Task: inverse folding
């Protein structure tokens, strides 16, 4: 398959998935994000890389963190930002998604940030647009959420540095989570010592044994000696005809509480992409505790998204 993400001179054209993304590009994004974080007193007009450019947020699924941090990131780079309200757009009159995109391109949109419930929609758009506009996947169904994968790995790098010595556990609804897929892909590309997934059999993807992970079905076994614990939300909106345990049963078996946190290494880092369901996958004492970097993830998300957009717009 043609590499849609990178042009022939290896420039980042679109960001559709972590799978297939060069380690070099990931490291460049991290280095640029470091620079944006170092400037502590960022003002809204402090950077001009996207001056005269227009970024359009197209969220066909709800979002708090991703949409808002993309908007903040784009504004910090001096871009114009459009947040199209899909519910009141002409989509309800039967306009196709490609017609919608082409109309927005006619209005000179340079970067589209797209979230959709159907896997592959950002890729379909990237294949079909007839302009140099850039497409960023902000989450497509249960497939990938690449900027979340980037910001999660960046957060680990801030606290732990060396991936080659780390054991990382991803816990919960692996099958329906696009975050889990991007995390597995990026941790693998960065050479993580061991990637574990922990969860009920019913919430593991059928191809789990083909991925570069070790599978556990109890927290007691899976959390032993790990350095990072990435908790996930149960994605009830993506489940059909599945037997899902009740919230209390799930918490009893797979919830992260203080007692279970002690099974991991003493300085284990706790992450969660949000939104958190307190008392379902994580208890408040852990989510708000000293090992949690959950709000750091949100903050670093702005720097990562700035870095991605700057890299796309950069001439070479
Ligand atoms: N992590 C994440 O994607 O959060 P939102 O759904 O709020 O964007």
Result:
């Amino acid at each position: 398959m043609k590499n849609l993400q990178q042009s022939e001179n290896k420039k980042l054209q679109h960001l559709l998935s972590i799978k297939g993304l060069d380690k070099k590009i990931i490291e460049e994004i991290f280095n640029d994000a470091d620079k944006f974080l170092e400037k502590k007193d960022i003002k809204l007009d402090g950077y001009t890389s996207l001056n005269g450019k227009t970024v359009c947020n197209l969220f066909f699924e709800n979002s708090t963190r991703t949409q808002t941090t993309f908007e903040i990131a784009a504004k910090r780079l001096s871009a114009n930002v459009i947040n199209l309200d899909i519910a009141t757009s002409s989509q309800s009159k039967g306009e196709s998604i490609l017609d919608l995109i082409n109309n927005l391109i006619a209005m000179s949109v340079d970067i589209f940030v797209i979230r959709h419930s159907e896997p592959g929609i950002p890729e379909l758009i990237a294949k079909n647009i007839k302009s140099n506009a850039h497409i960023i996947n902000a989450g497509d169904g249960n497939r990938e959420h690449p900027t979340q994968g980037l910001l999660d790995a960046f957060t680990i790098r801030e606290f732990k540095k060396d991936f080659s010595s780390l054991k990382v556990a991803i816990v919960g609804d692996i099958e329906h989570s696009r975050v889990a897929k991007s995390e597995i892909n990026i941790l693998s590309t960065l050479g993580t010592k061991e990637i574990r997934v922990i969860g009920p059999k019913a919430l593991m993807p059928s191809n789990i044994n083909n991925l570069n992970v070790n599978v556990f079905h109890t927290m007691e076994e899976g959390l032993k000696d790990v350095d990072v614990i990435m908790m996930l939300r149960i994605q009830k909106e993506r489940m059909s005809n599945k037997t899902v345990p009740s919230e209390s049963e799930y918490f009893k078996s797979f919830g992260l509480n203080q007692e279970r946190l002690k099974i991991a290494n003493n300085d284990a880092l706790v992450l969660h992409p949000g939104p958190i369901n307190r008392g379902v996958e994580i208890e408040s004492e852990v989510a708000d505790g000293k090992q949690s970097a959950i709000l750091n993830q949100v903050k670093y998300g702005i720097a990562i998204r700035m870095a991605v957009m700057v890299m796309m717009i950069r001439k070479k």
In short: The chain has two domains: 2-144+301-313, 146-297. The chain has a mean pLDDT of 93. The two ends are 24 Å apart (CA to CA). Residues 146-297 form a domain with the Rossmann fold fold (CATH 3.40.50.1370).
